[in-house]
């Protein structure tokens, strides 16, 4: 075999190796960012979560730390798109907290299939439906009306919460439709829970 062929094979093997290592490196970079953000901002974020999320507020210190770290990871792994409103720092934090609240006991909590979360100013029309939507889940993302999301977290006693509702749809979609990031414990015990 010529030295050119050996070099080409070596180059291909290096490329394959780097391709396999890159996702692991990327996750490591994201985790380092989360550690840094947690150290710098955990007091600010904890204050916001205590104000808006009664579930978070009810947790003990270790539970709050675990919850906030999951929220930061969820936020880092998702892209947030804002429709007809200006982004605010609280938006991805509180939406991510709704997802983490719903999946807090699960090992796989990132709702891996969904890469984008759309935050819309208010109710909206979707498809051929006549009635306005406060949120929905489709193959391409999770959609939430910010006006309803924030109002329903302000009044936690009325049994309505579009954030938790849509995250529940996303969780069932991930576990039963696409099975991308499925949590086996949730999948196996869903009928018992239902």
Question: What does this 3D model show about the protein?
Answer:
- The chain is of the alpha/beta class and 194 residues long.
- It has a single domain, classed as Glucose-regulated metallo-peptidase M90, N-terminal domain (Cyclin A, domain 1), CATH 1.10.472.150.
- The protein contains seven helices and four strands.
- Strands 1-2-4-3 form a four-stranded mixed beta sheet.
- α4 links the parallel β1 (79-83) and β2.
- α1 packs across α3 (61-77), α1 crosses α4 and α3 packs across α4.
- The radius of gyration is 20 Å and the shape is globular.
How would you summarize the topology of this molecule?
Layout lengths: L2 H50 L1 H5 L2 H17 L1 E5 L6 H14 L12 E5 L14 E4 L2 E5 H9 L7 H17 L5 H10 L1
Parallel strand pairs: 1-2, 2-4
Antiparallel strand pairs: 3-4
């Amino acid at each position: 075999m010529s030295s050119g062929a050996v070099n080409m094979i070596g180059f291909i093997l290096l490329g394959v190796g780097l391709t396999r290592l890159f996702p692991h490196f990327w996750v490591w970079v994201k985790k380092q960012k989360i550690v840094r953000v947690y150290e710098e901002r955990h007091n600010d974020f904890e204050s916001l979560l205590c104000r808006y999320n009664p579930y978070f507020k009810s947790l003990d210190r270790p539970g709050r730390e675990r919850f906030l770290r999951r929220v930061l990871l969820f936020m880092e792994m998702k892209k947030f798109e804002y429709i007809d409103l200006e982004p605010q720092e609280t938006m991805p934090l509180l939406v991510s907290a709704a997802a983490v609240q719903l999946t807090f006991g699960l090992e796989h909590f990132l709702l891996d299939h969904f890469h984008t979360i759309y935050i819309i100013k208010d109710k909206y029309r979707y498809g051929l439906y006549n009635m306005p939507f406060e949120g929905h889940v489709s193959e391409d993302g999770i959609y939430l009306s910010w006006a309803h999301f924030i109002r329903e977290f302000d009044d936690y006693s009325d049994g309505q919460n579009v954030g938790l509702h849509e995250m529940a749809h996303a969780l069932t979609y991930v576990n039963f439709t696409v099975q991308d990031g499925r949590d086996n414990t949730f999948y196996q015990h869903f009928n018992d829970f239902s």
